[in-house]
């Protein structure tokens, strides 16, 4: 009996919930095989079309709405496969979550965000890119939205296959712009708005990277490089978790609760400040108890950041579901409205059945195809641990708040991936600084060759160039593809 109790297999028994997550990961690996994943995706798209047929009835434009619902489902699958990786990648890369656990949490919170707080009103032309009156007739508007939806979905699908996390918002914007130009000419485009979106290509990743690097520098200087790391952590980790809690409270108040209530920036800031102070006070005894008996080394610190990192991933997923579900179903809702009433100049409410297609599509896309991009963001750009991943998650929330304050359009994808780059490049700079400092202290110490130093770069340059290139060409590529699709549809129906 005593031998059995000392058996490592018994000592290392995991909780049943974690075992279920492990089973989910195995199931994901199975269904992610090309033929099975593709088959399930096709079934979901067909079911979306059947749902549209049941809810829309036997109106004259039922066939058009069924096609649009299928395209919306296809877009939602691609959002789940690509965009959700930005929220879950850092937590998985830091080993705070297993792949199965990340998929389970993301699926629940993405769906909850979409259904509970998903935007109930969208502009008939996404983001104000095209003047609605320039479309002329309802059929032209419907085909333009169809083209935008299909082109955005195809582009995100291609980016996922290549392994590049891109902005689904920018893909939809590019699709709408391309279809609008094809339908009504360049004069129909709202170029000042497009200029702001182009600026966000630079602003989002730079701001996200800078904020993540600042917090990593704070953690290193105040905790990691201290002689008594545990004592420093007891002081600073509650502060950092309070900042994170406050930032997410403000973030969710601004971005995740628009359907429930409209909250302005000063109010959101005050909500965040109050909740942040409350969390800081609560976390002081929690961290003190959690840190008892920990060894005075960096590895011990990871334990203190694990739970905040998991919570941040869940909250990011909720806010993402609330906001980005409109990328899949906004154009679909506009098509439904135009098909029902013939009016495409006013704002349109998103029907519940349309929102459900978007929410379930994002979850299915994540489950079937998400692990590839989760691994890319979490492990292949730069090596992450819980402290670095925490900086990425915190940066995502703070950057959105700062951008809202400045009135700048930003991309959640660009922010999160930019934060990962920021963490990696800061680590490179910090490592080089420490090497120079050690060289001054020990002049006779052997030095690395230029080739060896290049090999030791902490950010993979190939991934960096691939992702930046994909970001730059997303809007023009989606626009060109959308324009071509619109011309093909127009010539086919002429």
TrEMBL record:
- Annotated keywords: Membrane, Phosphate transport, Transmembrane, Transmembrane helix, Transport
- What is the protein's name according to its record? Phosphate transporter
Q: Subcellular localization, per the record?
A: Membrane
According to the entry, what is the taxonomic lineage of the organism?
Answer: Bacteria, Pseudomonadati, Pseudomonadota, Alphaproteobacteria, Rhodobacterales
Pfam families, per the entry: PHO4
Q: Where are the transmembrane segments?
A: 36-56, 63-81, 140-160, 172-191, 197-219, 231-253, 265-283, 303-322, 350-369, 389-406, 412-429, 464-489
Q: Fetch the InterPro entries from UniProt.
A: Phos_transporter
Q: Which organism is it from?
A: Cognatiyoonia sediminum
One GO CC annotation: membrane
